[in-house]
Fold each of these.
Amino acid sequence: MTALLKGETGDWEMVIGLEVHAQVLTKSKLFSGASAEFGGAPNTHVSPVDAGMPGMLPVINKECVKKAVMTGLGLNAKINNVSVFERKNYFYPDLPQGYQISQYQHPIVGEGSIEIDLPDGSVKVVGIERLHLEQDAGKSLHDQHPQKSYVDLNRSGNPLMEIVSKPDMRSPEEAGAYVTKLRAIVRYLGTCDGNMDEGSMRCDVNVSVRKPGAELGTRCEIKNVNSVRFVQQAIEFEARRQIEIIEGGGVIKQETRLFDTSNGTTRSMRSKEDAHDYRYFPDPDLLPLTVEDGFIEDIRKTMPELPDAKKQRFMDEYGLSHQDASVLIGERERGDFFEKVAKGHDAKLASNWVLSELLGALHKAEKDLKDSPVTAEQLGELIGLIEDDTISGRIAKEVFAEMFGTGKNAGDIVEARGLKQVTDTGEIEKIVDAVLAENPDKIEQYKGGKDKLFGFFVGQVMKKSGGKANPGMVNDLLKKKLEA
Ligand code: ADP
Ligand code: MG
C-alpha cells in the first residue's frame, strides 16, 4: 500500500522509520527505588540517584529487564544475552547527571518484526531494528514564572524502552497502523500502559522522500509526537515540505524538527547531532547486563496470547472476518469481552452486537468498555433471546437501548414491557387479514406485477403487531394469502 505523492517532477515515495519511547510499566525507576508513577507534586519522586548527586550508584531494576525481554519476545526479536549500558553525554537543565544512561552498541534486544493491519484489510511486516533500555530526563517548566524556569525531576530516571523500526513504512496510514499495533502488543504484555496522553508512549518520526526505486533520501526527525493522528499529520506535512524543497532545487538538511499540534506543521529545532557528539562510553558504574537463556525462557512461558495469534484464532475458531477480528483484538479487554459474549451463542451474532451496538453506544456515551453498563453476560443473554426467537433483532435493539440506559437484564425488560415475539399462527393471521382487508387497491397492484409491494405488507403487519410478530412467519403467511 504505497501512497505516492504527486509533485511537479512526478511521483514521490515517502519513507518512514519510527523510534518509539515506551515507559516500562514498573513501580520504580530504572536505576533507583523512587516511584515511577505519573504525576505527583513536583520533585517528590526523586532519589539522590535521579537528582544526579555525586557519588550515588545506579542499581538496575530487574523488573525493567524482564519487561524489556518480554517486549522483545513480543516483537519476535532476538534477545541479546549480554548488553551494555553507556553514558550518552549532553547538558540539559533537566538532566542533572550531565549524561543519560542508555544502551548504544549493545542493546538488550536486536532485530525483530511487527505485522501491521492496513485499512484495506492487508497485512504488512515492518522490521524492528532494536529495543534498548534508557533513562528518561526530567522536565523543565517555562510557564510557571515570568522570569524563571523551574525543573521537575519526577520523570528523571524513569525506565524507557526505545523501540526503533527499520525505515519500512511508506505512508501515514502504515505509520499509524504500526503505532497502533505496537501499542496493542505492549498493552497485552503489560510492559507499558501505552498511555500517549500522559507521555508513556511517544514517537520520534523519521521522514524522507525519494523517487520510487531510488536510494534513500536524507531524513528529518520529528521529535516527541504523542498521538497516532499527530504522527500521521506530521508525516503528511513533512513529506510535502521536503518535496517542495527538492523540486525547488534545494537539498534536505538532516535535522531535528518539532511538530506544532496547533496547525499541523513542523519546524526546525536543531541540526542533527551525530553520535560522536555524545561521547558514548560504557558506564563504569554498571557491569554489562547478562540475561541467561533460562531467564528468557521463564519469561516466554508467562506471556499471554498476543494480538496476531488472537486474531488468527478468532478467524479460525469463530469464523470471523479479518476485519472484525482485527477490531476485536485491538484491545485485550475487547477480545476478552467478545469471548464471554460468544460463550454458548452464535459467534457472528455476538461479534456484530459487540462491534456495532455495544461499541457504538459506548462511543456515543464516551465510555470505556470497562465501564460498560451492559456486561458480557447480559449481552449474551440478550443474544440468547434472539436465538430462541423470543424477540426479533429489531426489538432486541430497543431492549439493548434500555439495558444500556438502566443496567437491567434483557429478560426482565422483555417481560415487563411485554415484548415477547408473537409466534402464534392464529394471532399473526388475524393481523395479516386485517392489513389485507385495509388495502384492496394494493393487493390489486401487487397481483398486477408490482412485487415491491410485498415489503409494504410486511411492514404494515409488523407495525400493527408493535414489531412483535415473528418476521419469518409474517412472510410465509403473506405469501400464502397473496398468492392464493
Ligand atoms: P539515529 O540513532 O541517529 O536517530 P538510526 O540509524 O538509529 O539513527 O535511525 C533512526 C530511525 O530513522 C530509524 O527508525 C530508521 O528506520 C529511520 N531512518 C533511517 N534512515 C531513514 C531514511 N532515509 N528515511 C526515513 N527514515 C529513516
Ligand atoms: Mg534516534
Amino acid sequence: MAMWGGRFQEATLSVFRDFNDSLSFDYLLAQQDIQASRAWAQQLAQANIISNDEAAQLDTALADLSVAIDADPKLPLQTREEDIHSWVEAQLTTTLGAVAKKLHTGRSRNDLVATDLRLWSKLNAQGVRQSLLGAIAALINFAEQAGTAVMPGFTHLQRAQPVLVAHWALAYIEMFKRDLSRLDDATTRLDVCPLGCGALAGTGVAIDRQQLAQRLGFASAALNSLDAVSDRDYVVELSAAASICMTHLSRLSEDVIFFCSGEAGFFKLGDAISSGSSLMPQKKNPDVFELLRGKTGRVLGHLVAILHVLKGLPLAYNKDMQEDKQGFFDLMSTWQQSLLVLATVLPHLSVNKTQCRQAAELGYSNATDLADYLVSKGMPFRDAHEVVGELVVHAAKQQLALEALPLAEMQQFSQLISNDVYPALQLEAGLQKRAALGGTAPQQVLAALAQAKVWFEAV
Ligand code: ARG
C-alpha cells in the first residue's frame, strides 16, 4: 500500500503507477536509506518521540535488512512498493508491526531521498577517486616505459614539432590531476546533511541536526530546509566533473586510435585488448578506445539532462527531481568503469620507438629549429620564419629533408647559414633546446615524471 493512501478514495491507475514509481531504479539506495533510518531512529529516541526500546527494535530490524540487502541487492525488486523509502518502511512493518509506523515521524521522503543520494554520492565518489588514481598510476608507468622515445607532435593534426612520448602521457596526467581536484572539491561541498529538514519547512521534532549529521558521517547539517530538500547541485557538479574527465579520456582515446593506425604506427595494441573484424582477417581494432570515446557522449548527455530537469523548478521539492537518479547512477558507474578500463589496458599498449622516431624526423619538424638558428645568428624571427618557409618549399620540391640540403644551396637563402647548421637541425638538438619549464627537453620530461611520482605518493 502507498505511504499516502489515507486521502485517496480511488485506486491508482496502473499506467500512472508505473510512471510514478521509482523502486525499479532507486533500490540502489537501499543501504543508504537504511543508514539514514537508523540514525533517524536514534535521534527520535533522543528527542523522546520513541522509547529506547523501540529505537533498539528499529535498529535491529534495520541492521537485519542491511544484511539481507548485502546478500541480495535486488531484493526490493520482488515487491511493488513505490520507492525504496516505502520498501524499507514496509519491510519494517512486516517484522515489527506498530513500532515501524513511528519511524517516519518528523521526516519526509523529501529530506530522506536528498540524504540517501548524498550518502550514495559520497561513497561512489570514493570509488571513482580510486579508479582515477589507478588511471594516473598507469599513465605514470606508461611514461616511464616510454623513456626518452620521441614521436611527432601535432597541431591541426599536421606534424609540428617532435615531442617525447612521455611528454604526451604527462599531458594527460596533468588533466587527470585537475579532474581529481575537481572531484575532491565537489565531494567536500556535497558533504552536508539534509535530514531533519522535513518536507520543506523543517522538522517539527526537536532534533539535534548537527549531531544527526555527525552520526551519518557528514561534515555539517544543511542550513536552510527549502534549499536542503531541493538542492541537487552536487549531482550537477559530479556530472560536470565526470564530463570533463571523460572528455580527457575521450581525447586520449582519439590520440591512441590515431597513433595505432596503419598510417601512424606509433603505438601497438596487445591482442588481449583488441578485437578483430568478422569479415576482414587482417584487422585488429582499437574497440576499447573507441568505446571510451563513445561512452563520453553518454556521460555528457546525463549532465545536460540534469541541468534541464532543474532549470525551471520552483522551490522546493518537485517530482521532476526523481529524474535525478537514473542518468546519474549510469554516469557514475560509466565514469568509474572507464577509468578502470583505461588503467587495465594501458600496460597492453606498446610504443614502436623506431617508427615514432622515423616519423618525428619527417615532415620538416625541425623547421622551427632552423628559424631559431638564424635568430641566433642575428636575424629577426619574422625574417627567419620567411627564409625557412622558402627553404622548406625548396627542399620539398626535391623531396629532401632540410638537413639533406648542401650548404651552398642553403646559403642562397641566407648568408648567415654555415656548417654549424647541421648539428642544429638534428632531432636531439631541437629537443634539448625546449628545456624551459613545461617543455619537451628530455631532462625537463624526466623531472616532470619524477614530480608526478612525488605528487602521486603524497595524494
Ligand atoms: N521517489 C522520490 C524521488 O526520488 C522520493 C521523494 C518523493 N517525495 C514526494 N514528495 N513524493 O524523488
